[in-house]
Design brief:
two-stranded antiparallel ribbon, signal, alpha+beta
C-alpha cells in the first residue's frame, strides 16, 4: 500500500488570507494498478471540465444576482443542473473505480472528493470578500 495524493485545491486569494493552509489535499491509501490510473485519468479530465462549467456559472450568477429575477433564475437553474451532473459523474466513476479496485476504495475516493469540495466551499464562504458582498462581517 502507498499513500497517494489524489486532489489538491488552490484556494481563492481571499480564502488564503483567512487560513494558514493554501492547499487542501486528500490522501487515500490504495494499491494502484494501471487499470486504476486509466480510470483516474478519465475521471480527472471529466471532473475538471465539470468544475470549469461550475466556475463559469458561479461567475454568471454573481454578475446577474443584483439584476433582474428572470436572469438570476435562469442561471441558478443551470447551476443546479450542473450540480446534478457532477453527482452523476461521481456515481458513474464510482462504478468504474469499483470495478478496478473495490467498493470500499471506490466509496472512500468519492467520499473524500465530496469532503474536499465541502471544505473549499466552507473556506470560501468564510472569506471576508464573500461576506462583504452580502453586507455581513467575516465569519471568525
Amino acid at each position: 500500500m502507498i499513500s497517494l495524493l489524489i486532489v489538491s485545491f488552490q484556494l481563492p486569494p481571499a480564502a488564503m488570507a483567512q487560513t494558514d493552509t493554501t492547499n487542501i489535499s486528500i490522501r487515500l491509501t490504495i494499491s494502484p494498478s494501471e487499470a486504476f490510473w486509466k480510470v483516474y485519468r478519465q475521471y480527472e479530465t471529466a471532473y475538471f471540465n465539470q468544475l470549469l462549467k461550475a466556475n463559469q456559472l458561479a461567475a454568471d450568477y454573481a454578475a446577474c444576482v443584483a439584476g433582474n429575477d428572470a436572469a438570476t433564475h435562469k442561471v441558478f437553474m443551470k447551476w443546479l443542473k450542473n450540480d446534478i451532473a457532477g453527482d452523476k459523474l461521481k456515481k458513474r466513476y464510482y462504478k468504474k473505480f469499483k470495478r478496478v479496485s473495490s467498493p470500499r476504495m471506490a466509496s472512500a475516493f468519492i467520499r473524500r472528493e465530496n469532503n474536499a469540495e465541502s471544505e473549499v466551499s466552507r473556506l470560501w464562504i468564510s472569506t471576508a470578500e464573500y461576506q462583504r458582498d452580502r453586507g455581513r462581517p467575516p465569519i471568525p
